[in-house]
Design a protein that fits this description.
- By secondary structure, the protein is an alpha/beta fold.
- It has one domain: Alpha-Beta Barrel (TIM Barrel).
- The protein is built from ten helices and ten strands.
- Helix 2 runs parallel beside helix 3, helix 3 runs parallel beside helix 4 and helix 9 packs across helix 10.
- The longest helix is centred in the middle third of the chain and has 22 residues.
- The chain is globular and about 45 Å long.
- It binds zinc ion.
- The site of zinc ion has 5 residues, from loops.
- Zinc ion binds next to loops.
Protein backbone atom coordinates (compact mmCIF):
# COMPACT_ATOMS: atom_id res chain seq x y z
CA UNK A 1 0.00 0.00 0.00
CA UNK A 2 1.48 3.40 -1.00
CA UNK A 3 1.68 6.20 1.55
CA UNK A 4 0.16 8.75 -0.84
CA UNK A 5 -1.52 8.76 -4.22
CA UNK A 6 -1.03 11.86 -6.34
CA UNK A 7 -4.36 11.53 -8.11
CA UNK A 8 -3.69 14.26 -10.66
CA UNK A 9 -0.29 15.13 -12.07
CA UNK A 10 1.31 15.81 -15.45
CA UNK A 11 4.66 14.07 -15.86
CA UNK A 12 3.38 13.65 -19.41
CA UNK A 13 4.02 17.38 -20.00
CA UNK A 14 7.02 19.04 -21.66
CA UNK A 15 8.22 20.28 -18.26
CA UNK A 16 9.25 16.69 -17.47
CA UNK A 17 10.42 15.65 -20.92
CA UNK A 18 14.02 15.12 -19.85
CA UNK A 19 13.55 13.68 -16.39
CA UNK A 20 10.08 12.18 -15.99
CA UNK A 21 11.73 8.83 -15.22
CA UNK A 22 13.81 10.20 -12.34
CA UNK A 23 10.83 12.18 -11.08
CA UNK A 24 8.74 9.01 -11.00
CA UNK A 25 11.57 7.16 -9.22
CA UNK A 26 11.78 9.91 -6.58
CA UNK A 27 8.06 9.59 -5.96
CA UNK A 28 8.02 5.79 -5.85
CA UNK A 29 10.96 5.81 -3.42
CA UNK A 30 8.79 7.90 -1.10
CA UNK A 31 5.85 5.52 -1.61
CA UNK A 32 3.91 8.00 -3.70
CA UNK A 33 1.83 6.57 -6.55
CA UNK A 34 0.46 8.81 -9.28
CA UNK A 35 -2.07 9.28 -12.04
CA UNK A 36 -0.88 11.33 -15.01
CA UNK A 37 -3.78 13.24 -16.52
CA UNK A 38 -4.06 14.02 -20.21
CA UNK A 39 -5.30 17.43 -21.35
CA UNK A 40 -5.55 16.74 -25.09
CA UNK A 41 -5.04 13.70 -27.29
CA UNK A 42 -1.22 13.93 -27.42
CA UNK A 43 -0.74 14.32 -23.68
CA UNK A 44 -3.37 11.66 -23.00
CA UNK A 45 -1.50 9.19 -25.20
CA UNK A 46 1.76 10.17 -23.51
CA UNK A 47 0.18 9.53 -20.08
CA UNK A 48 -0.79 6.04 -21.23
CA UNK A 49 2.71 5.37 -22.60
CA UNK A 50 4.35 6.42 -19.33
CA UNK A 51 1.95 4.26 -17.33
CA UNK A 52 2.73 1.28 -19.57
CA UNK A 53 6.46 1.70 -18.89
CA UNK A 54 5.86 0.99 -15.20
CA UNK A 55 4.15 -1.80 -13.32
CA UNK A 56 2.40 -0.67 -10.14
CA UNK A 57 2.25 2.94 -9.04
CA UNK A 58 1.90 4.85 -12.31
CA UNK A 59 -1.50 5.22 -13.98
CA UNK A 60 -3.19 7.41 -16.58
CA UNK A 61 -6.34 9.41 -17.20
CA UNK A 62 -7.38 10.57 -20.66
CA UNK A 63 -9.40 13.60 -21.64
CA UNK A 64 -9.58 16.94 -23.40
CA UNK A 65 -9.21 20.02 -21.17
CA UNK A 66 -11.62 22.90 -21.93
CA UNK A 67 -8.78 25.34 -22.63
CA UNK A 68 -7.75 23.13 -25.55
CA UNK A 69 -11.07 23.43 -27.33
CA UNK A 70 -10.07 26.77 -28.84
CA UNK A 71 -6.81 28.09 -30.11
CA UNK A 72 -5.53 30.77 -27.74
CA UNK A 73 -2.66 31.87 -25.59
CA UNK A 74 -2.74 30.76 -22.00
CA UNK A 75 -0.80 32.43 -19.23
CA UNK A 76 -0.54 29.96 -16.42
CA UNK A 77 0.84 31.03 -13.11
CA UNK A 78 4.18 29.33 -13.63
CA UNK A 79 4.30 28.76 -17.34
CA UNK A 80 2.78 30.01 -20.53
CA UNK A 81 1.86 28.15 -23.68
CA UNK A 82 -0.18 28.29 -26.81
CA UNK A 83 -3.26 26.14 -26.59
CA UNK A 84 -4.22 24.50 -29.86
CA UNK A 85 -7.83 24.04 -30.77
CA UNK A 86 -8.75 20.35 -30.73
CA UNK A 87 -12.00 18.59 -31.60
CA UNK A 88 -13.09 15.91 -29.16
CA UNK A 89 -13.03 12.64 -31.06
CA UNK A 90 -14.76 10.29 -28.66
CA UNK A 91 -13.77 7.16 -30.61
CA UNK A 92 -10.04 8.00 -30.48
CA UNK A 93 -10.23 8.58 -26.74
CA UNK A 94 -12.21 5.39 -26.26
CA UNK A 95 -9.59 3.45 -28.19
CA UNK A 96 -6.93 4.96 -25.91
CA UNK A 97 -8.82 3.83 -22.81
CA UNK A 98 -9.19 0.30 -24.15
CA UNK A 99 -5.53 0.13 -25.14
CA UNK A 100 -4.27 -0.15 -21.56
CA UNK A 101 -5.47 -1.45 -18.22
CA UNK A 102 -3.48 1.39 -16.65
CA UNK A 103 -6.10 3.96 -17.72
CA UNK A 104 -8.09 4.46 -14.53
CA UNK A 105 -10.22 7.54 -15.28
CA UNK A 106 -11.61 9.92 -17.87
CA UNK A 107 -10.06 13.33 -17.31
CA UNK A 108 -9.24 16.01 -17.23
CA UNK A 109 -12.18 17.75 -18.84
CA UNK A 110 -14.83 20.16 -17.65
CA UNK A 111 -15.66 23.85 -17.50
CA UNK A 112 -13.21 26.74 -17.43
CA UNK A 113 -15.00 30.08 -17.48
CA UNK A 114 -11.86 31.87 -16.28
CA UNK A 115 -9.42 31.33 -19.15
CA UNK A 116 -11.56 32.28 -22.11
CA UNK A 117 -10.43 32.53 -25.74
CA UNK A 118 -10.51 36.06 -27.13
CA UNK A 119 -12.83 37.01 -29.95
CA UNK A 120 -15.43 34.32 -29.28
CA UNK A 121 -18.77 35.02 -27.64
CA UNK A 122 -18.56 33.72 -24.03
CA UNK A 123 -22.00 32.11 -24.36
CA UNK A 124 -20.76 30.10 -27.34
CA UNK A 125 -17.66 29.01 -25.42
CA UNK A 126 -19.72 27.98 -22.39
CA UNK A 127 -22.11 26.03 -24.60
CA UNK A 128 -19.32 24.13 -26.33
CA UNK A 129 -17.57 23.38 -23.03
CA UNK A 130 -20.79 21.99 -21.62
CA UNK A 131 -21.43 19.85 -24.68
CA UNK A 132 -17.89 18.39 -24.62
CA UNK A 133 -18.23 17.78 -20.87
CA UNK A 134 -21.39 15.75 -21.53
CA UNK A 135 -19.55 13.72 -24.17
CA UNK A 136 -16.81 12.88 -21.65
CA UNK A 137 -19.45 11.81 -19.12
CA UNK A 138 -20.96 9.56 -21.78
CA UNK A 139 -17.53 8.12 -22.60
CA UNK A 140 -16.86 7.42 -18.91
CA UNK A 141 -20.14 5.52 -18.62
CA UNK A 142 -19.46 3.53 -21.77
CA UNK A 143 -16.05 2.34 -20.54
CA UNK A 144 -17.07 2.13 -16.87
CA UNK A 145 -14.45 4.56 -15.51
CA UNK A 146 -14.75 7.37 -12.96
CA UNK A 147 -14.47 11.00 -14.03
CA UNK A 148 -11.82 13.54 -13.02
CA UNK A 149 -13.27 16.98 -13.62
CA UNK A 150 -11.59 20.34 -14.06
CA UNK A 151 -13.65 23.36 -13.04
CA UNK A 152 -12.77 27.00 -12.77
CA UNK A 153 -15.23 29.82 -12.07
CA UNK A 154 -18.16 27.53 -12.89
CA UNK A 155 -18.90 25.31 -9.88
CA UNK A 156 -22.60 26.09 -9.79
CA UNK A 157 -22.97 25.50 -13.55
CA UNK A 158 -21.00 22.24 -13.27
CA UNK A 159 -23.17 21.06 -10.40
CA UNK A 160 -26.35 21.61 -12.41
CA UNK A 161 -24.87 19.86 -15.42
CA UNK A 162 -23.84 16.80 -13.36
CA UNK A 163 -27.15 16.63 -11.56
CA UNK A 164 -28.97 16.50 -14.90
CA UNK A 165 -26.60 14.30 -16.87
CA UNK A 166 -24.57 11.95 -14.69
CA UNK A 167 -24.85 9.27 -12.09
CA UNK A 168 -21.53 7.64 -11.41
CA UNK A 169 -18.24 8.03 -9.60
CA UNK A 170 -16.36 11.30 -9.91
CA UNK A 171 -13.97 13.74 -8.36
CA UNK A 172 -13.55 17.50 -8.61
CA UNK A 173 -9.87 18.04 -9.26
CA UNK A 174 -8.08 21.14 -7.84
CA UNK A 175 -11.10 22.21 -5.85
CA UNK A 176 -11.03 25.93 -5.04
CA UNK A 177 -14.69 26.57 -4.35
CA UNK A 178 -16.47 27.21 -1.08
CA UNK A 179 -17.45 24.59 1.49
CA UNK A 180 -21.09 25.06 0.49
CA UNK A 181 -20.18 24.19 -3.10
CA UNK A 182 -18.03 21.23 -1.99
CA UNK A 183 -20.93 19.88 0.01
CA UNK A 184 -23.19 19.81 -3.04
CA UNK A 185 -20.66 17.72 -4.97
CA UNK A 186 -20.30 15.36 -2.02
CA UNK A 187 -24.06 14.92 -2.04
CA UNK A 188 -23.73 13.77 -5.66
CA UNK A 189 -21.23 11.18 -4.43
CA UNK A 190 -18.14 13.02 -5.64
CA UNK A 191 -14.72 13.23 -4.01
CA UNK A 192 -13.01 16.59 -3.51
CA UNK A 193 -9.33 16.73 -4.58
CA UNK A 194 -7.01 19.19 -2.83
CA UNK A 195 -3.49 20.22 -3.73
CA UNK A 196 -0.65 22.68 -2.91
CA UNK A 197 -3.01 25.64 -2.99
CA UNK A 198 -3.90 24.84 0.63
CA UNK A 199 -0.32 25.71 1.65
CA UNK A 200 -0.43 29.25 0.28
CA UNK A 201 -4.09 30.25 0.07
CA UNK A 202 -4.50 33.38 2.16
CA UNK A 203 -8.23 33.87 1.52
CA UNK A 204 -9.35 31.46 4.24
CA UNK A 205 -11.46 29.55 1.74
CA UNK A 206 -9.20 26.46 1.58
CA UNK A 207 -8.93 26.43 5.35
CA UNK A 208 -12.70 26.47 5.69
CA UNK A 209 -13.11 23.67 3.13
CA UNK A 210 -10.43 21.53 4.82
CA UNK A 211 -11.87 22.02 8.29
CA UNK A 212 -15.37 21.05 7.17
CA UNK A 213 -14.62 18.34 4.63
CA UNK A 214 -14.61 14.86 6.20
CA UNK A 215 -11.48 12.88 5.28
CA UNK A 216 -13.75 10.21 3.80
CA UNK A 217 -14.53 12.53 0.87
CA UNK A 218 -11.03 13.91 0.32
CA UNK A 219 -8.29 12.87 -2.07
CA UNK A 220 -4.92 14.52 -2.71
CA UNK A 221 -3.06 15.60 -5.83
CA UNK A 222 -0.23 17.91 -6.91
CA UNK A 223 -1.27 19.10 -10.43
CA UNK A 224 2.49 19.19 -11.13
CA UNK A 225 4.26 20.95 -12.78
CA UNK A 226 1.89 23.68 -11.56
CA UNK A 227 0.93 24.84 -8.07
CA UNK A 228 4.03 23.79 -6.11
CA UNK A 229 3.28 23.89 -2.38
CA UNK A 230 5.27 25.80 0.20
CA UNK A 231 8.26 25.54 0.67
CA UNK A 232 8.72 25.08 -3.11
CA UNK A 233 6.32 27.79 -4.21
CA UNK A 234 7.09 29.14 -7.69
CA UNK A 235 9.28 26.16 -8.64
CA UNK A 236 8.37 23.14 -10.73
CA UNK A 237 6.08 20.93 -8.71
CA UNK A 238 6.34 17.11 -8.57
CA UNK A 239 4.45 14.17 -7.01
CA UNK A 240 6.85 13.74 -4.08
CA UNK A 241 5.79 17.20 -2.81
CA UNK A 242 2.33 15.89 -1.96
CA UNK A 243 3.48 15.48 1.66
CA UNK A 244 3.47 19.27 2.19
CA UNK A 245 -0.20 19.47 1.26
CA UNK A 246 -0.99 16.57 3.59
CA UNK A 247 0.94 18.26 6.41
CA UNK A 248 -1.08 21.47 6.05
CA UNK A 249 -4.35 19.55 6.04
CA UNK A 250 -3.27 17.61 9.14
CA UNK A 251 -2.37 20.89 10.88
CA UNK A 252 -5.75 22.47 10.10
CA UNK A 253 -7.65 19.38 11.14
CA UNK A 254 -5.53 18.88 14.27
CA UNK A 255 -4.72 15.26 13.40
CA UNK A 256 -1.61 13.27 12.45
CA UNK A 257 -0.26 13.40 8.88
CA UNK A 258 -0.40 9.61 8.83
CA UNK A 259 -4.14 9.74 9.34
CA UNK A 260 -4.54 12.10 6.38
CA UNK A 261 -2.27 9.86 4.29
CA UNK A 262 -4.02 6.66 5.26
CA UNK A 263 -7.58 7.81 4.61
CA UNK A 264 -6.96 9.78 1.40
CA UNK A 265 -4.94 6.90 -0.05
CA UNK A 266 -7.65 4.45 0.88
CA UNK A 267 -10.22 6.70 -0.84
CA UNK A 268 -8.12 7.00 -3.99
CA UNK A 269 -7.49 3.25 -4.21
CA UNK A 270 -11.17 2.48 -3.89
CA UNK A 271 -12.21 5.22 -6.28
CA UNK A 272 -9.69 4.40 -9.04
CA UNK A 273 -9.56 0.65 -8.41
CA UNK A 274 -5.79 0.67 -7.96
ZN1 LIG B 1 -4.17 19.32 -14.36
Amino acid sequence: MPKFIDTHTHLNFQAFRDDYGQTIDRALEEDVWMINAGTQFDTSRRAVEIAEEHSDGVYAAVGLHPIHLFEHHVDEEETSFNARGEEFNIDSYKELVLRSTKVVAIGEFGLDYFRMPKGVDPKTVHGIQQEITKQHLFLAKSVDKPVMIHCRDAYDELYELLKENYTGPGEIHCFTGTWEQAKKFIDLGFYIALNGIVTFDKTGRSENVVKNLPLEFMILETDAPYLAPEPHRGKRNEPSYIKYTAAKIAEWKGIAVDEVAHQTTKNARRFYHI
